[in-house]
Amino acid sequence: MTVPKFGKKMENKDYQTRYGVYAIIPNKERDQLILVQAPNGSWFLPGGEIEKGENHFSALKRELEEELGFSATLGYYYGQADEYFYSSHRDTYFHNPAYIYEATSYQVLGQPLEDFNHVAWFSVGEAQSKLKRGSHQWGLKKWVKKHH
């Protein structure tokens, strides 16, 4: 199976690979999704970088606690989509293999551990239009196809 690719890989640029894992977290009615807004104003699926020694599940568990203050039960795995982008904040070109999961349920544990992000619930259509990364949009389209 071919891995979908998003963004443009520039010639003669040194890309740093940053593996990430992300969750599509719907409400019980599956008509709204929670997104995370980074300090730069961009919206993303909850999740982030897989750190050394972590697998997909341990990385996503940590990221959801940090970003949302949630724990979640993961369900369907939608697959991998690769993203190429430049981060002006880090002055770095990134290759971001993104692994997208569905959360079948979640529990609020408390306040997010990180205080620099903003989180909000959006209708599925609004979430789709707000997501910055093509890989996240791809995962959400696959989720919509499965559930709607």
Keywords:
148 residues, alpha/beta, six-stranded mixed beta sheet, 9 strands
Summarize the structure.
The chain is an alpha/beta fold.
Description:
The strands form two sheets. Strands 1, 2, 3, 6, 7 and 8 form a six-stranded mixed β-sheet that branches. It is built from three helices and nine strands; from the N terminus they run ββββββαβββαα. It is of the alpha/beta class and 148 residues long.
Quick one: biggest sheet?
6 strands, mixed
* Count of DSSP H/I helices: 3
**What percent of residues are in strands?**
35-45%
Secondary-structure element string: EEEEEEHEEEHH
Mass-distribution shape:
globular
Low-confidence stretches: none
Q: Give Rg in angstroms.
A: 15 Å
Helix content: 10-25%
Number of extended strands? 9
Strand and helix layout:
Blueprint: E1 5-6, E2 15-17, E3 20-24, E4 32-37, E5 43-44, E6 47-49, H1 56-67, E7 70-87, E8 92-108, E9 118-123, H2 124-130, H3 134-147
Parallel strand pairs: 1-7, 2-8, 3-8
Antiparallel strand pairs: 3-6, 4-5, 4-9, 7-8
